Known about the structure:
Blueprint: E1 3-8, E2 14-18, E3 21-26, H1 41-45, E4 52-58
Antiparallel strand pairs: 1-2, 1-4, 2-3
FE2/S2 (inorganic) cluster (FES) binds next to helix 1.
Amino acid sequence: xxxxxxxxxxxxxxxxxxxxxxxxxxxxxxxxxxxxxxxxxxxxxxxxxxxxxxxxxxx
Length: 59
Ligand code: FES
């Protein structure tokens, strides 16, 4: 069984996890220079957001 989750990290990106391993970090602050990927700019611009599990699926 494969478990897929998208986790919105506190003050950071959306992480796509497959079986508990992070496969990609997607920008959600809108300031990355490597969109759609997070490049860490969220910390420099003071992005603030809650952490939550945005999506979860088991196949
Ligand atoms: S969330 Fe990391 S650069 Fe936007």
